[in-house]
Amino acid sequence: MINAQYILIVGALLVPLVDLLRRELNVKATKIINYLTLSILLLSFIFEVLFGNIQSTLFNSVDYSYFINSFILLLSTLIFSFMLLHFEKLDTYIDVFFIITVLGATLMVISSNFLSLIISLEMMSIPSYALVLIVKDKKHLEGTFKYLFISMLSIAFLVFGSSLIFLSSGSLSFSSLSTVNYLLFLPGIAIVLAGIAYEATLVPFHSWAPDTYDAADSTVTAFLSSVPKAAGLIVIVHIFTYAFPLAEEFMLVTLMILAMATIIVPSIIAISQSKLKRMLIYSSIAQSGFAFVGVSLLSTISVYSAVFYVFAFATADALVFLSLSMLESKGVYLISDLGKAKNLGMVPVLGLSLGLLSLAGFPPTIGFFGKLLIFMSLIFQGYVWVVIVLIAVLLFSTFYYYNVFRNMYRRKYFLTKFVPIKSDIRWALKEAIIIILMAIVFAGVALISAA
Amino acid sequence: MINLIYLILPGVLGVIALYLKDITHSNIPSKSISYTAMGATLLLLLLGTIFGFSGFNLAISKAIDLSISFNLNGISLPFLFLAVLMPMLVLPSFKYDVFDKKLTFNVLFLVIYVSIISMFMSSNLLSLFIFMEISLLSAFFAIFLWGNESSFNSAMKFLIFTQISSMLILTAFLMVFLYTGSFELTSIGAFTHSANSIYLSTVFMLVLVAAIIKFPVFPLHVWMPGAYYDSATSITALLSGLFSKIGGYILLLFILFITPISASYFSMPVMILAVISAFYAAFIALSKKDLKMMFSYSSMLYMSLALMGIMSNNAIGIDGGIFLMISYGFISPLAFILTGYLRSQTGTTDMTKVGGLMKKVPTFALFFFIVVFASIGVPGFSNFIGEFLVFLGVFKFYPLIIISIVSMLIATGYYLSAVKRIVFEKFFAPVKNLHDLSKSELIQTVALSFVIIILGIMPYILINSINLGVV
Q1: What pLDDT, on the 0 to 100 scale, is given for residue B469?
Q2: How many Å is the Cα radius of gyration of chain B?
Q3: How far is CA A81 from the centre of its chain?
């Protein structure tokens, strides 16, 4: 029985072998390796949709796992093809690392045991350090080191927390935590949460994210800010609904405070950013806070709303950062550059606009429906005051998102016609990818029932 | 039987046609595509009033009860009439401010048109909210792109204030969903019509605050002077003629169908607020030297009176409030069109810099008279009916509130002084040769005046279409 993870495992083993063969035969062209990787990712997406996930004692799929894994694989395929088009020459080891990262992400989402969680978390994080360092210069090195150190620290936390939980309950599996020794269990939960929260960039643990995402190339940022973040949030959902139902009552306040801090703090910082990329990074940290609000409520509808919101913001983040990458190749770095640069091309500008509208929560994009579901689940549990605080923060974010529009559609630039750019097949294909993402952002409402 | 979806089809086809025009670089002027679409919608509306309308329902997601369903409720026909007829008469004024990217302007205009019509027809609260948000987003771009130098700040203030009100409305809708389990207006009405609780009063209060922001009514009106003044003429006409009615429409839905009993508890405080707001707007309009600012605050005055009529807890007042809103929805675009003409001819709308225009541009003076007298409430024009019914309803509720009629005296004061300064006295203007109203402007002003006079002489054609008891 073939599923997506088998394809990825086979791919992770096959690609280095083919590459070795290529070196032995002294073939210079590395494109064939890239295309092989791309086809493996595409195949795994198809197999995910058709056949689903791996089943074993360590991995157990829930009803939303198929949805999450399919969209993780789809996003990874699209981002990888964008990376191929963007970089002149992609080293072949990057391909293997990409496959392993995606494999780790898909395994993390379906883990049902702390052991498999730790292993798949490491499998996802370690190759992504190399992804940040695709271009080897000082700035990228700095970002990689920050990511590396904080990530090592948090994996250590995760292992320590899991060991405390093992001590207190006698098993590492998620589903057999019925008799627990609370003295060790509570610190265990807290430490596990601290370990995974860095991955989902929740507030006290988010400090690596702005620098790493800023240092990495925009296409890699598109990947880092959508897939690992989504995986981290879904893992927190999974842990708290399956492993810690006992923890509900007293964790609610902690989780809610974490969520509110994650929404409020980056929104305030984002207002003052003049570099477009950093503003988008802070806004994406705030988005994961919104999804975390759904997680912290732990009712059925809030879990579904959190899952749908993760899909909504991951797609919008990928769209926004990929459009940003296209704009950066035209020389746009600061927000005010948007008004001054010429010949930006219609598709990246539209992609950025639509992504920002989705992040700001305007109908009929999926960002609006995600926020609607989060508000619904909050009101149904009775937390109207949280809704009011969220609305206030939404107004902050409206300001900094629309500030980008003010620069993009500035009247002087508006007057010049769009000169058709000499088309370049790579540019056109990049535009095609952005259009696919835009279509999902716009018409993804139909997927509400899938979540 | 005209299915209600046909009313938005011409607009959607118009947007697609404009997009195709852009791709094929054809030479058809964008405005003719817009006029065709809006004219077709008007024709369909007239056919519908003769033959009857039938509903439309398209379920998108059962999980959150989202479906695009169009059904007429008791109060939507007057608003539909306003929303279908008025933009077509306002579009020709774009020549004053839109000098570039006319295609984008027409696309935004048609998107606002279609979304507001869909909003007035929706019977599913969630799709109503979605259409409202789409129209607000397009309005933000429309204000920002073709306005003054400071149009971004005004557009941002407009966006943030109306976002606050949209979020309050969303919270209210979600609370109603929690209470009744559905977003459909008919089923909600059946459930909550005779219910009375603190919960429903909270819902109503949220909608009330949202409507106060949207009308706008003192004290949450701060976005209004900037947004009305800094935008293009046709956009200002749309803002004061259509967007200010959205708040009233949603408030009416709650007063008549969803929470009638809770609404009656809020009548007295809100009417006092409306009186204060009416006096505030009237005094400020009295102090303004700029014609466009004066008309903006005057629009706020009449919206406050309409709020007073709506909250008066009897059918006469509500009829009056609706009628006043619709009639002022025709008068204020006419006013703004005339100020746009004045600015395009003389370069200014400042009343101290122009005077005695009767000698040079008598047709403009004629329509200026019509606007001023219609607005004051001279019988024969539609505003008289609206004001009369509002004051009658208010008197029936609590006689002392009739003191607000003094604000009408102040309105008369500033209007007549404006007439004296601009139309009569010695002629002076920054530019010496003024052309009289051109043909397209003449068509606009004649058509709007015609509607105002017809509504004033035969008000029953509108009042008969209002049915206050039926969802």
Answers
A1: 64
A2: 21
A3: 17
**Amino acid letter, B138:** S
- State the average pLDDT over residues A400-414: 72
Closest-approach residue (CA) in chain A for B147 = A411
CB contact under 8 A, A363 and B159: no
Best mutation target, A267, A398, A412, A442, to test chain B (most B CBs within 10 A):
A398
Is residue A38 within 8 angstroms of chain B, CB to CB?
no
Q: How many residue pairs from chains A and B have C-beta atoms closer than 8 A?
A: 72
Residue A396 counted as domain residue: yes
Shortest CB distance from A362 goes to which of B133, B168, B177?
B133
* Alpha helix stretches (DSSP H) within A329-362: 337-340, 346-360
Cα-based angle B295, B298, B301 (whole degrees, multiple of 5):
160
Do A384 and B141 lie within an 8 Å CB cutoff?
no
Q: How far apart are CA B386 and CA B391, in angstroms?
A: 9
Task: For residue A341, tell me if it sits in a domain.
Answer: yes
- Give B150's contacts in chain A (Cβ within 8 Å): none
- The ipTM estimated for the assembled molecules is 0.84
In a domain, residue A42? The reply is no
Q: Which residues of A touch B62 (CB under 8 A)?
A: 449
A294-320 b/e (C-beta count within 10 Å ≥ 16 → b)? bbbbbeebbbbbbbbbbbbbbbbbbbb
Q: In sequence order, what DSSP letters do the residues of A5-55 get, joined into one string?
A: HHHHHHHHHHHHHHHHHHHHTT----HHHHHHHHHHHHHHHHHHHHH----
Name which of A224-228, A237-241, A276-280, A317-321 the model is least confident about. Answer: A237-241
| Residue A394 lies in domain | 245-451
The stretch B147-163 carries a mean pLDDT of 87
- Cβ B174–A375 below 8 Å, yes or no? yes
Q: What is the CA radius of gyration of chain A?
A: 21
User: Is residue A23 classed exposed, middle or buried when 0-12, 13-18 and 19+ CB atoms within 10 A define those classes?
Assistant: exposed
State the burial class of residue A261 (Cβ atoms within 10 Å of its Cβ: 0-12, 13-18, 19+): middle
Structural domain count of chain A: 1
The total of other beta-carbon atoms located within 10 Å of residue A88's CB is 5
Contact residues of B toward A, CB < 8 A:
60-64, 66, 100-101, 126, 129-130, 133-134, 137, 140-141, 144-145, 152, 156, 159-160, 163-164, 167-168, 170-171, 174-175, 177-178
Q: Which is more confidently placed, B150 or B90? A: B90
Tens digit of each residue's pLDDT (9 = 90 or more) over A289-338:
888 888 888 777 788 888 888 888 898 899 889 888 888 887 778 877 77
> Is A228 part of any domain?
no
Nearest to B339 by CA among B102, B96, B85, B151: B96
B65, B173, B174, B199, best to mutate vs chain A, most A CBs in 10 Å: B174
pLDDT digits (tens, 9 = 90+) for A230-265: 999 988 888 877 666 665 667 778 888 888 888 999
Flag if A411 and B145 touch (Cβ within 8 Å).
yes
Q: Give the Cα separation of B214 and A348 in Å (integer).
A: 34
The partner residue sitting opposite B167, judged by closest CB among A384, A394, A399, is A394
Distance CA B248, CA B304 (A): 10
